[in-house]
Amino acid sequence: MSFEEDDRVVLHDEHSEFDGETGTVSQTMESMFGDVTYTISFEDGQEAGVPEDDLEAADEADAEDDEE
Hints:
By secondary structure, the protein is mainly beta.
């Protein structure tokens, strides 16, 4: 599944300080080999160069929890 800018996603990367957090896709980048990576913005910062395999679409409940 590919993501677009402003999509809400959950990051799954045990090496990231944002592991398990919900953020917003702020940028997509495609390499010359056709691989896409993402920059994800969180409340406390951002993570760049995130591969699609480390992301999942956020549930509506996740988005509501973040707004509260």
